[in-house]
## 1
Amino acid sequence: MRAWRWDLFCRVIDNFGDAGVCWRLAAALGARGHAVRLWIDDASALAWMAPQGAPGVTVQPWDDTPPDLPPGDVVVEAFGCAPPPGFVARMAARMAARLSANTAPPVWINLEYLSAEPYVERSHGLRSPQLAGPGAGLDKWFFYPGFTPATGGLLQDGAAVGDDPAGARTWLRAQPWAQAWRESDRLVLLFGYASLPLPGLLQALAGQPTTLLLPPGALRDRLQAEPLPSNLRLAALPHVSQPEFDRVLAATDLNLVRGEDSFVRAQLCAGAPLIWQIYPQHDGAHAPKLAAFLDRYLAGCPPALAATVRQGFHAANGLAPWPAALPELSAWRAVHQAWRAQLRAQDDLCAQLLRFVKGRQG
Ligand code: TRH
């Protein structure tokens, strides 16, 4: 397969997931020899997320007056962010050109949000003919990440870090910000939103000596502002790069994660179980999204354990009180590791996207 030129458009809504997912995709394509122009309106998070950049990836600032650059072979709009109208018009102009110079218009992909809900399998790969506007005549294709072979899969690059948890713990132990961690302490990452319901969680965690790893943010500010149960210690992390964040996930005993990308990485890179605080949506759409994931994640789980894990996920999302004690970690690890193995055996999103594009090139 020859190398293609990609235009990947990313609008940062808030937090870090838009940039996180798009950077991860861009770096994965670049690692496979493709040239990726990442259009992003706020690249600030990349300074710590990807301080070294990535082979094949150039960051193109996306402001109100984007340069009139010619579209590449593939255009990906992340989460329906819509490329600039002038750029789309230049994509469409290639249709006319094709009649003469045989330059097919770019393959146009809408990379959708991740969900475990059934609609994803029905929607993945659907064609959306553009009937009006600057892209009239072009086809846009829906590409859905997911947890089953009937979806576009997950970005798996770097997930092998989870195969060496001892190595990850050795790395973590050497970090200056981890010195509060006593070896005998349980190690728990808390990467949630400020809204994370805390009192019940801290009580449940205080059942045994535990070091809490806290990335920068409003949740950490909250925790540092209040007295903690004596069994709990805090380790304040700086922002670390995505590969280092994967190592943190691989080193812990439990990961409370959020949004989309850290949620995926906690499944692919960690042998430890996770609790997911979903990105809250005002219309409550997050509840069915949470339920759909839990049904898949807990499908092979003994009922009593599944009930406590489900309650923990619901508690993290304000849908139930925290259980007095967290589920027994070793049984939960076994369920999590079986799920991880199932996901790791699936076709990687990048490989699927390349095949998908090849099958739609004019
Ligand atoms: O930051 P988030 O809450 O991003 C959210 C979600 O993506 C959500 O789906 C989206 O709708 C919203 O943004 C707009 O959580 P997420 O998805 O886990 O993204 C965090 C990214 O930051 C992820 O790629 C991991 C990375 N990261 C690091 O690389 N280093 C760090 O130190 C930390 C804390 C995060």
Note: The mean pLDDT is 96.
## 2
Amino acid sequence: MVKNQWNAALYEGKHAFVWQYGTDVLELLAPQPGEHILDLGCGTGQLTDAIAQSGAQVVGMDAAASMIEKASQNYPALQFAIADARHFEIDHPLDAVFSNATLHWILEPDAVIQSVYRSLKPGGRFVAEMGGKGNVDSVVQALYAALKALGYDNPAVRNPWYFPSVGEYTTRLEQGGFEVVYAVLFDRPVTLDETEGVANWLQMFASPLLAGLSAEQQHGVIRSVEDQLRPTRYQNNAWSIDYRRLRFVAIKRSIG
Ligand code: BEZ
């Protein structure tokens, strides 16, 4: 899995939209009192807490120790664990696995789907939202152009993100033993309402693409991305980033 340096303070301070938008996906999950639910990629725990408020028994998992530390501080009554989405184990079969804005960080999607499948009861549901095909494409293309200008001829090899189409991901789910009962890809532009919005976003989320560059080169790449995006994506002191979401509900079939 790609290692990102997760800064929990920058995440909570400037990127709260990540879990604020996730509340819509909770409606699709519709957690019920007494259900056992896993929040896969829980970040700093806000949606884990929202699931717990429904009366479900919830565990939050994340690969980043910094996120789990902050989640445990935020919600000391809840259970959190550091775990890799490709290989996690669960003691008690789950009614549902929920995931918001995490699956696109894992370049081995079938391993995640298999782990989720193993963790669920027959009939259990996998409800998630992730970046979908074309997500943040303006930023990706601007990053590639800036890296190429520094002499990195194949910047795509640094790309840590997996943004599948509906067809690709639902096929993987079906091959993994799920029945997909809902799937949609839609545009959801995100507003970063500060002059430094893109710079903060890149520092928070794009560190694998900037790895190995000197501080001066990183600064240059960030300025170049801003310069490329400004004509079309900056207005009234706010940036508009071209997020596209893939949302789905998949049910574990009784017989794989
Ligand atoms: C997303 O949630 O779509 C996303 C977040 C950070 C980097 C790339 C995509």
Note: The first strand starts at residue 36 and ends at 40.
## 3
Amino acid sequence: MSTEWLKNAVFYEIYPQSFQDSNADGIGDLQGIIARLDYVCDLGCNALWINPCYDSPFMDAGYDVRDYKKVAPRYGTNEDLYQLFEEAHKRGMHVLLDLVCGHTSDQHPWFRESCKAEPNEYSGRYVWTSNAFEGIEGKPYICGMAERNGAYMLNFFASQPALNYGWLNRTKPWMSAVDSPEALATREAIKDVMRFWMDRGCDGFRVDMADYLVKNDDDQRSATCAIWQDIRAMLDRDYPEAVLISEWSNPVQAINQAGFHMDFYLNHWGNGYNTLLRDYETEGGDHSYFKRDAGGDIRRFLREYLPRYEASRGNGYISLITCNHDTPRPARTLTADELKLAYAFLLTMPGVPFLYYGDEIGMRYLDVKTKEGGYQRTGTRTPMQWSRGRNLGFSEASEDQLYLPYDHSADAPCVADQACDENSLLAETRRLTALRHRYTNLQADADFEAIRAEADAPFVYRRGSLLLAVNPSSAPVSWTSDRLSGRHVAYSINAAEVLGDNLTLAPQSFAVIEA
Ligand code: NOJ
């Protein structure tokens, strides 16, 4: 299989607005990313996911695309993006773009055309009712804004009309069939966008709202899955190294049925992920597993994760994330010591891990005013903190020009400080990615087994022939098992020792135990 590269992939998500500004206009850009590729590479990340960088009015930070084939001028030109692909490839890295295929901006030319009263090629490109006074039951829509006599469906914000992939259960005459010419034309138009970028060096796509193409789909999302299988077949045939990762958060559907190579394990749908790092929104307080002495219980995660892992293994990979641009940063509630253990876990689990820019230094979730439809997500999207210099090294612009304010606290974490501190979160993250690259047993497809998962620590698990143990508590713990005999600690965070059949773990520690 030519998507073998995924086995050893560690992704780094870049929100382009906030990573590195190269031309002093206060906003990150593609040349800025290129200039920082060596940093990402040294961090041990060998693949990138870049949030939408296409032309857009930015009502939803670029998830409202106005031109799928044009880089937004604020980030540079298409040539800059081709150069980024090339520079990444030189370093053995892969680059995924964001495919926003469920909707466009209401400023997209397709949509403008579809608003016209006179029927044209794009009349069926979006979901429209046949009468301006007829809405779409239970679904958000807008009426009274177009010359055309109809209401159009929204996929997300008011500026994001839903593209028309058809309806599975059709209850109104205006609902297109999944195999209608207009629904097929939408699909082909998106394939054309994919081919455009693949032909220019892109390595695949992170797919936005991948589960929500066909409307009134069944519980299995079978009609939406069929579309993805068709797209996957195109990739397998024409771009066999290309990969797709879904924003679906249902690995059984996304991987087994739809054919995605990977599926994000996101902070929703009751999948246990929040119990690891972000349990604070649940009633009764924060019992996150990696929060020291917070009464966390790894079984709350495993109960949900294991069945999904078992059911999808062999077909594709679950992607665990430190965070993403929609999620509060883990440093909102976890200390650097807690984050080290959390990342140790996330980077040694099966599947393909994703690190969100700045999490490697423990960037904080900031209380900032909303920007480009971010609302509470904005606090996770602030400028990368490189150094103690002007604007923390993000930009040479004057401060009032910055896309978002940076962290002004005196102890704001930054790369330059942590790079020369062996005890820093950055240094630990680097060691952990190196560890993952060193052992094929820690990579995406190696076996996983939960060995000791109790209410108390340690949590002991197996990857291939390695044993791993984590103790997030403030007390030393030990574990006795004949599985330990003849083994030694090959890597640890804080002290860990195997003596005979006994493992002792210092407070807040992690160990990899080799035969
Ligand atoms: C999910 C994206 O991650 C989010 O940022 C965006 O607002 C919505 N999809 C709509 O595209």
Note: The chain has three domains: 4-101+182-440, 103-164, 448-514.
## 4
Amino acid sequence: MKVLFVSLGCDKNLVDTEVMMGLLAKSGYEFTDDEANADIIVVNTCSFIHDAKQESVNTILEMAEYKKEGSCKALIVTGCLAQRYQQEIFDEIKEVDAILGTSSFDKIIEALDEVLKGKEFKKCDELLRLPSIDVKRTLTTGGHFAYLKIAEGCDKHCTYCIIPKIRGDFRSYPMEVILNQAKDLVANGVKELILVAQETTVYGTDIYGKKMLPTLLKELCAINGLVWIRLLYCYPEEITDELIKVMKNEPKICKYIDIPIQHASDAILKKMGRRTNKQHLIDVVGKLRNEIEGIAIRTTLITGFPGETQTQHEEVMEFVDTMEFDRLGVFTYSPEEGTPAAEFDNQIDEEVKLDRQAEIMELQQEIAFEKAEALVGKTFMVMIEGKLADENAYVGRTYMDAPNVDGYIFINTDEELVTGDFVYAKVTGALEYDLIGEIDYEFT
Ligand code: F3S
């Protein structure tokens, strides 16, 4: 039987997709990307903000059409929207045969067995359960890099965020489970592991009673064949001196860190339920830059949080201008049913949120361009991501860029390179967020 997967949302959700695909592959299922010929369609949904929910619903409806007309015999909805709106999905979209929540995705085979017998299947309870990831994942990222999910859920309860309600409390995967998966991925060709969780910095606190990320990183660094390790989703207040020291001393760890800060006004940070303030953010970023030479810092911001004044927005602009983050993404605030912030007074107009988002991005574009220009003449190790169609040029990433969210370097060469190869490239030019380069034979 052929299965089509549509994976929406974030990299954590993508890991769940790859685990489900691994379980199906182990049971003899094959995969297709042709909706019209799929026997089974699985939509792994997102429910983070309004647009993500809309995209998930639209995708389910679109796939439901193949149940009516194509060869599709089973439509399965999994992930965050399934967890949050399980009954509504079953009630409103009759073509859906099974729902698997965020803690039950490892029950995919059981669900299919039931559905193919003509029964409905719904499993969304047990939000505190930690689904098994102990399977050879089917990678969808090209095989040269992979996300490594080290924990599930979140305990922080920021007032705007629905994640704890759909992913449950923070639960770390045991270190041996993570290391086994990492070794298996590397043995199968993965050269870069990207550590993800709702929050990676508190890894281990629930099961080992202390922060174990530095220890985990050292263990990962010992894996032969692994070239890069990258850290995403590090909360500023949880970054310790020990973590900084490991990042500084271990050559396999990319000098890159993603620290979502969300805002820069103390009043808004407080209303968001964040455990930090502007001065603390300045201190953390300063410390990282002082201790780790060349570190690339990525962050994310939210515009239009309830009550955000023009002055507070300008404070964010000034902060962005001064801090000169290497990478930055901006979301507009989305009031999520069931979160405290959705009930706050002074909700901001969509248009204002969008204007503020655009203003910050415009400023960041200038900063990013200046930073990119300053790299001209320098040589970096680059991981090749693929070849540009009809051109003698390849796309790659330096340590400063995570896949899908950051920039790329375009390398012109007559050489035949393969995805996942590492080369040394000298930067010869800068585009807005990207670089242009050529192979530096002095290093390669
Ligand atoms: Fe990710 Fe969306 Fe769920 S961002 S954790 S897939 S709500």
Note: Residues 9-10, 12-13, 46-48, 52, 79-80, 163, 167 surround FE3-S4 cluster (CB under 6 Å).
